[in-house]
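Recall from the previous chapter that SMILES is a line notation for molecules. Here it describes S-adenosylmethionine.
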Amino acid sequence: MQSILLHAPLLPWPVNWDEVYGRTAPILVEIGFGSGHFLIDWARQRPDANVLGLEISLPSLRKGESKIRNTGLTNVRVVQGGAPLVLQALFAPASLSEVFINFPDPWRKERHYHRRLISDEFLNLLATRLSPGGLLDIATDHPDYAPWITERLERTPYFASRLPTTFVTEDNERLRTKYELIALEEGRTCHYFKWRRNAETAVNPFPIPEELPMPHIIMSSPLSLAEIGQRFEPQHTSDGETHVKLLEMYQSFYDQKLLVETYVREEPLTQRVGLSVFRRQTGELVVGLHDVGFPRPTRGIQLAIAHLAQWILGLHPDSTVIANNLSNAIWET
Ligand SMILES: C[S@@+](CC[C@H](N)C(=O)[O-])C[C@H]1O[C@@H](n2cnc3c(N)ncnc32)[C@H](O)[C@@H]1O
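With both inputs in hand, we obtain:
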């Protein structure tokens, strides 16, 4: 049976979408598909295309998966993950033909405006993933979000309206979403933005994040694992772009191994991982990445491991590093 629900944390960067759908076809994406009505109608209307729905809500994903299975459609999948990370990590540049964002959450309070999906940065990211001439459609029924979207679309250098105006408030051609039908029934005005990617090259290419080999550092230290654990204090490091916090250290009763709860933020990714420190039978300490929770061995993880190893080195003057497989740029900073 084909997999309809895909989990972003387990997918390669970028995904080979031809393999996922078993054919090469234009890729159409709906961001925040909610009930899935529009997504399914779209896939039905466009048998020529590979259709993908993005969602962060697990109940919506499960319901969407089951509805799609019941339709028997083979050209639609759903992926669990937030749009900024999914777009940047899972799609090659210029690989999308059409993107629909139907009724994104308006985040009504001013102090929550920074959570709004439509931002200058997000439009720039979309510009890198849509192919030239690719279509971007956005709809909202929210009276404050409509001018917000208008302002950002009108100032982006990467898109142009397909209409003589920035938006229209009626569009009888389009497929409707569940949320839209309720809004219309309740008498709210919907704003429809129908835009197109132009040929302008995006300044920020939003590179696909890179996965590196599983990192490790081999060191010697006269300290026992328990002595290292007793000296631990929460700590933070940053190289400006990446932020690492070593939050807590735990020790195994079974084999004395140390596990360091670690937070790594490197746009567009945030990971909560465990770093491990254990002693080999031959006596060396190994600092590495624990594989619980499918961590992605990125540059930020290397930075975290380098920081932890440097801290252990600083605990005793007779500690030394024997070998490591980190990139030179990280280990030498
Ligand atoms: C107001 S609802 C609209 C649902 C649907 N598009 C409709 O019109 O009926 C917004 C949807 O976007 C989803 N969402 C919010 N932020 C998201 C993100 N960063 N990536 C993907 N989906 C997101 C929410 O879970 C929710 O289902």
